[in-house]
Amino acid sequence: MDSVLGGSNKKTITMSTVATDYGMDKALQQLGLKDVNHGTSTGSTWYPGGEEIASYSPVDGALIGKVTTTTKEEYDTVIKTAQEAFKTFRAMPAPQRGEIVRQFGNKLRELKEPLGKLVSYEMGKSLQEGYGEVQEMIDICDFAVGLSRQLNGQVIPSERPGHVMREQWHSLGIVGIISAFNFPVAVWSWNTALAWVCGDVCVWKASEKAPLCSVACQNIIAEILKENDLPEGISCIINGDYTVGEWMTKDTRIPLISATGSTRMGRIVGKTVAERFGKSLLELGGNNAIIITPTADLKVVVPGAVFGAVGTCGQRCTSTRRLIIHESVYDKVRDAIVGAYDQIVIGNPLDEKNHVGPLIDKDAVDMYLNAIEKAKEEGGNVLVEGGVLEGEGYESGCYVKPAIIEAENTYEIVQHETFAPILYLMKYSGDVENAIEIQNGVAQGLSSAIMTNEMKEAERFLSFAGSDCGIANVNIGTSGAEIGGAFGGEKETGGGRESGSDAWKVYMRRQTNTVNYSDELPLAQGIKFDL
Ligand code: UN1
């Protein structure tokens, strides 16, 4: 078909047989997704809902199933149920809540295969990455179980005699989760696993582009909650377009909104939540670069850069969008990367031979094509041609070829996050500081990386004067973060941190206590107030 495909993309399937060919039928059965026609739930209770949202697979264009949108009345019932559940759940000892999350993690271990397949089929990422996403859920559950015994506060010395100060952490309430299509299950679990051990209850509005993933997750957790005699309202899902999101962001009953998506969306969410003094955790767009220095090892650079750029078909927040290459090694690195693109096999992501699946939908394909056009208009030099794949196996119209374009960092299109496999190559000369300036010279600040064997360069990249991103890696790519670290970024990425480290603190409210165990009442700052 095309040279970019290599010769091995022979496994083609027809639209009607994909589900059975790759065990999708069985997977849907195992996940309780046969004949679903609902999308609003407080646990084991499902509500009929309003309009239908159809979920078509970008893999083969087939209709996987339908959910319904949440009506305003149902939304209010969900929030009231969650508020009630919070009263019970926050009173449960944190390690017991951890036990619930442990059971959830174990269930995910059992269902890794069907859930990974569903992620792959509904969203389009490769099966390996679908399984990886479920593994990320399991990992955060394990992390949260340990955390459930470590929601530690501290004791602070008081300046007054006979006084002691403490800081403790209390449950917050309802956590509203708005998630994107690209990580349709993992990002929800980053939030829920932590929120639950913290004693919060969760209301999730998943992406309309991957709604069945949310129903599958809800089925799994609802069973665990029921087995443990826990009330409805601890895990809720709602569905719909931005109006449902707006109900959440304006709702003073939801103290924390955790939103993942575009900077455009985050700007609206952040503002709306701030207006009512709610808290928001924003994980927005990235424009991630790898700096490739003269001492970089090509064996590390090539897989790191290529997986970063084409993994999840360039639809990760952490996808590599820019390579900033030292002029002395530019030709060698460029040729190696371009050569590696020849090996990429594009096709049905459920077939493990394929590296890259489709984009999420035709709108995404249009954005990808427009970005390539724009880069050309601005003077970009195309090294690996993009384009939409046609023919057998590509009937959904969502399969595109990963492209490589030589470009300047100042191009408007390069400054912009396009959720597609387009990699921009640019040169730097002189010191690593020049590369860092280019790397930081965008509005976003999620992930970054440097490839170097020179210790001083690595440390300069990681120093206060180095990368301005929330994630800065050495000798690995920009994507594929582990759950143990705090995940998120600066500038237009929104400033939020999810997942590991002390990200749990955002799911709780901090309280400072001063206790006087003396018989006097000395005032702080030595103030005298004698009556
Ligand atoms: C996202 O793209 O929103 O670091 C999340 C990564 C994954 C998570 C990405 N662990 O690429």
UniProtKB/TrEMBL annotation:
Record has Oxidoreductase as a keyword: yes
Keywords: NAD, Oxidoreductase
EC number: 1.2.1.3
Enzymatic class: oxidoreductase
Residues of the active site: 283
Residues covered by the Aldehyde dehydrogenase domain: 51-512
GO molecular-function term, one example from the UniProt record: aldehyde dehydrogenase (NAD+) activity
Domain of life: Bacteria
Cited PROSITE patterns: ALDEHYDE_DEHYDR_GLU (PS00687)
Cross-referenced SUPFAM superfamilies: ALDH-like
Matching InterPro entries: Ald_DH/histidinol_DH (IPR016161), Ald_DH_C (IPR016163), Ald_DH_CS_GLU (IPR029510), Ald_DH_N (IPR016162), Aldehyde_DH_dom (IPR015590), ALDH7A1-like (IPR044638)
Pfam family, one: Aldedh
Similarity comment text for this entry: Belongs to the aldehyde dehydrogenase family.
The protein's assembly and partners: Homotetramer.
Name of the protein described by the UniProt record: aldehyde dehydrogenase (NAD(+))
Organism: Marinirhabdus gelatinilytica
